[in-house]
Amino acid sequence: MNLSALPEWLSPQQYFKQSGNRPRRRFGQNFLAQPQTARRIVDCARLTGAETVIEVGPGLGALTRHLLPQAGRLVLVELDRDLADYLRERVIGREPPVELITGDILEVSLAALADRSAARLVLLGNLPYNISSPLLFKLLEAAAAIDRAVFMLQLEVAERLTAQPGTKAYGILSVLLNCYAETRLLFRLGRNQFYPSPKVDSAVVSIDFTARPNPDPARPPFEVLRRLVSVAFSQRRKTLRNCLRPLDADRPGFSGAVLEQLQIDPRRRPETLTPNEFMAITRALGNLRD
């Protein structure tokens, strides 16, 4: 196919002027309008040309146009049907072939995409606030299928993902992600880099699943670990002794015995525990229960 015959890529301002559409608030649409920043984000993925890349919410193709010459295989997942039509005109017919899925990334099987590719996936995207946490939990559930991810997120969310024990931002996702991956806040983005401008700043985060063994025989099953961490942080200002009492319903004092065995002070608060300590508590709970 003659690539010069493909329609040009439009800036957000050009697209909305020509189409007469408006950004859809229910989809949390804020489009990156700086090509240099888009290229920098794609460079952060360290692509070699052999990877299968899943782009989440490609929108008007700010990242897509830089991914096309670098990805071994590119899968675009776009929920907005109008934007999916716009993308289809610009990517279908290219080599290597681009797959376009019109739908919700939360309903797409990442494991199935990895199986079809016979390789772990690389994910990129500008994530709306309303799907950030659900998608990150989805990645954790499919950790064996993921190599790495580079996401634009609201700065507040990015700071939670990379927070250290003892800080205000440290929470459930901080713990779980760092049990499965190495997370880094790469750089911040001002709200003026987007159209329309959001009310908050953003940041780019890398999540490297290859930095942790997978599968890891020392790591408890994800759902078991998630339940313990969720229980612990349900009342984060309470002590571990009080937070873990719901686990003692059928065996009074059970969680206290586990903490004593691990020599973890039951007066500590959950926000002070490291991911490794949470994994140790989860394993010990399972071993004693068995």
Kindly list the characteristics that best describe this protein:
290 residues, alpha/beta, Rossmann fold, Helicase, Ruva Protein, domain 3, 7-stranded mixed sheet, two-stranded antiparallel sheet, 12 helices, 9 strands, 38% helix, elongated
Description:
There is one protein chain. The protein is α/β, with parallel strands linked by helices and 290 residues long. The protein has two domains: 3-211, Vaccinia Virus protein VP39 (Rossmann fold, 3-Layer(aba) Sandwich); 222-289, Helicase, Ruva Protein, domain 3, CATH 1.10.8. Helix content is 38%, strand content 17%. It is built from twelve helices and nine strands. Helix 6 links the parallel strand 5 (121-126) and strand 6 (146-154). It is elongated, with a radius of gyration of 21 Å. The N and C termini lie far apart (62 Å).
Question: Could you give a quick summary of the protein structure above?
Answer:
The chain is α/β, with parallel strands linked by helices. The chain has helices at 12-19, 35-44, 64-67, 81-91, 110-117, 129-141, 155-161, 172-180, 222-233, 240-243, 254-261, 275-289; strands at 31-32, 52-56, 73-78, 98-102, 121-126, 146-154, 182-189, 194-195, 202-208. The chain folds into two domains: 3-211, Vaccinia Virus protein VP39 (Rossmann fold, 3-Layer(aba) Sandwich); 222-289, Orthogonal Bundle (Helicase, Ruva Protein, domain 3), CATH 1.10.8.
